[in-house]
Amino acid sequence: MINIPNTLTWARIALIPIFVGIFYLPDSWVSPTQKNLFATSVFIIAAITDWFDGYLARALQQTSAFGAFLDPVADKLMVAAALILLVQLARVDAIIAVIIIGREITISALREWMARVGESASVAVAYIGKLKTAAQMTAIPLLLYNAPLLSIDLREVGSILIYIAAALTLWSMGYYLHRAMPRLAKHMDR
């Protein structure tokens, strides 16, 4: 259970309280602009670490059942924390956070159940899920940063992307549920 990829995943989980805590520091210590920059940096570091731990697990042949469990948990915790903070900061509508977080819980439960009945291949990650993740993981740092960069209003771009991510979230959830329905129906009769 202790290897380089899993250690990186644990580090990503350890970043979550730091990420959240940044916004609770007094403005006399850290300005709101600095909070945005620090939080954006932590989120980007976590995202890079997510890619890197998967790459290392494959390259070093250190994949494990525990790592396969822990990695998506770390991702979902970081995204949920970010979305809740963005709702609190009035940068994301609550309905968007509910859609994205609700989908993650639903699909995680579906995947767990499908794995128990030996049908996990039917709900493997699909291209639509990857598109959703890309839109979401681009939108969140832009919304956290919350300032123009090179005369581009990153908050507006992030807002558009988070709505696209929410639409892709619903689409991907429908896709996974549709793929799982025949198997669910088969196993519900037992």
Task: Explain the overall architecture.
- The chain is mostly helical and about 190 residues long.
- It has six helices and two strands, in the order αααααββα.
- It has a two-stranded antiparallel ribbon.
- Strand 1 (about 150) and strand 2 form a beta hairpin.
- Helix 2 runs antiparallel to helix 5, helix 3 (about 65-90) packs antiparallel against helix 4 and helix 4 (about 95-115) packs parallel to helix 6.
- The protein starts with a helix and ends with a helix.
For this entry, give a set of tags.
190 residues, mainly alpha, two-stranded antiparallel sheet, 6 helices, 78% helix, globular
Total count of strands? 2
What is the end-to-end distance?
A: 35 Å
Q: Using only CA atoms, what is the Rg? A: 18 Å
| Helix count, DSSP H or I runs of 4 or more residues | 6
Would you identify the regions where 5 or more consecutive residues have pLDDT less than 50? none
Order of helices and strands: HHHHHEEH
Mean pLDDT: 88
Q: Structural class, please?
A: mainly alpha
Helix content: over 70%
Strand order of the largest sheet: 1-2
Described by its quaternary structure, the protein is single chain
Give the DSSP E fraction (strand runs of 2 or more residues): under 5%
Shape: globular
* Largest sheet report: 2 strands, antiparallel
